[in-house]
Design goal:
The complex is a heterodimer. Chain A is mainly β. Chain A has strands at 5-7, 10-13, 19-24, 31-37, 44-50, 53-57, 64-68, 74-78, 87-95, 98-104, 108-112. In chain A, strands 2, 4, 5, 6, 9, 10 and 11 form a seven-stranded mixed sheet that branches. In chain A, strands 1-3-8-7 form a four-stranded antiparallel sheet, with no helix packed on it. In chain A, a hairpin with a 2-residue loop joins strand 5 (44-50) and strand 6 (53-57). Chain B has no helices and twelve strands. In chain B, the strands form three sheets. In chain B, strands 2, 5, 6, 10, 11 and 12 form a six-stranded mixed sheet that branches. The chains are: A mainly beta, B mainly beta.
Chain lengths: 113, 118
């Protein structure tokens, strides 16, 4: 049973560029959440997708956008990258009705230079 | 105010000993859930244990138990018989609102780095 997968593992981008991160949820899960974890900090909630719509959003600017596909996989897009966007981006999946069971992927390490 | 506070940036424990990692939380919602996650150096967040605000008994999962003191708003993680593989960052997190309703996001603390000494 495959868990949550994320790609790519690592990414280096330049300020001002755009980036797309991808996440495939655990089998049977229909909800995907994205978190940003800066070095030495706990993860911060970016947004959550369910039924291909953004259901809830944390305190992140509009430069952060997402998408969920019919197969429940999800993308996180960040435009106009800033140095401060350098972080580990974690994807978590869960099933409606059991949101306490959030399974995390291994993350994508984004470095902005 | 911080919603989740973990006051121990780092902890050391001898192998085979028990250790308690502290977590206090702040919420006015009567329905909430508390989580503990382990994050090894590889980065993946591993779910350890969950406690619902209405659960009468403290949650236990193998060597992990959650010491839930609702009046004090604390949810400490107890790891019994520590192993070298327990060395990692540990995060306390909270979800506010009932399952299936309310807030879906997890709010995390800053974490505690646990080091197990042979």
């Amino acid at each position: 049973d495959a868990g949550v997968t994320q790609s790519p593992t690592h990414l280096i981008k330049t300020r001002g560029q755009q980036v797309t991160l991808r996440c495939s949820p655990k089998s049977g899960h229909d909800t995907v959440s994205w978190y940003q974890q800066a070095l030495g900090q706990g993860p911060q909630f970016i947004f959550q997708y369910y039924e291909e719509e953004e259901r809830q959003r944390g305190n992140f600017p509009d430069r952060f956008s997402g998408h969920q596909f019919p197969n429940y996989s999800s993308e996180l897009n960040v435009n106009a990258l800033l140095l401060g966007d350098s972080a580990l981006y974690l994807c978590a999946s869960s099933q409606t009705g059991a949101p306490y069971e959030q399974y995390f992927g291994p993350g994508t390490r984004l470095t902005v230079t | 105010a911080q919603k989740i506070t973990q006051t121990q940036p780092g902890m050391f424990v001898q192998e085979k000993e028990a250790v308690t990692l502290d977590c206090t939380y702040d919420t006015s919602d009567p329905s909430y859930g508390l989580f503990w996650y382990k994050q090894p150096s590889s980065g993946e967040m591993i779910f350890l244990i969950y406690q619902g605000s209405y659960d009468q008994q403290n949650a236990t999962e193998g060597r992990y138990s959650l010491n839930f003191q609702k009046a004090r708003k604390s949810a400490n993680l107890v790891i019994s018989a520590s192993q070298l593989g327990d060395s990692a960052m540990y995060f306390c997190a909270m979800r506010e609102g009932r399952s299936g309703a309310g807030s879906y996001q997890l709010t995390f603390g800053k974490g505690t780095k646990l080091s197990v000494i042979p």
